[in-house]
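Recall that a protein's primary structure is simply its ordered list of amino acids. Everything else, from secondary elements to tertiary packing, is in principle encoded there. The following example makes that idea concrete.
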Amino acid sequence: MLGVLRRPSQPMHEVEPKPPFWQTKPLSAMTDEEWESLCDGCARCCLHKLEDEDTGEVHYTDVACRLLDLARCRCRAYAERTRLVPDCVSLRDAAPDAFRWLPATCAYRLLAEGRPLEWWHPLVSGDPRTVHEAGISIRGRVVSERDVDPDGAEERIVEWPKTGGAAPARKKGA
């Protein structure tokens, strides 16, 4: 007669899970698919920025690129963006020090600085909605450049995109 088999309380050898690619690969060694998956969909990089000519400090505005779908927080013409918007920057081949103007929450900047991804990043959470639920994305916080006077950019400077904190809600009519 056979007895009941029991699972040992401690396996003889545990297999360590393989760490995710962003913890083991430098940005320069990532495949295009890995690189693109680092984008959390916050769209803070798609906001118009002003640079102080004297100090080099970058100031974000609450004005988004005309190609940005404000609800989806995604570019409507991603593959053509640098041709359609000459000021649009492609980071793929940039040196890591070029990421200094990116928000403190940006995965590209975090990894370039040797820091981990945030809990709400879709690669960590497994859910693309967490960037919005955590209040990190620009959703509901900005206006399109098509809807504002370009001469009023300095009046539209905001601080929240530079920080790791959630964005304050935009006032109606702003």
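Residues 31-162 form one domain. The CA atoms of residues 62 and 142 lie 5 Å apart.
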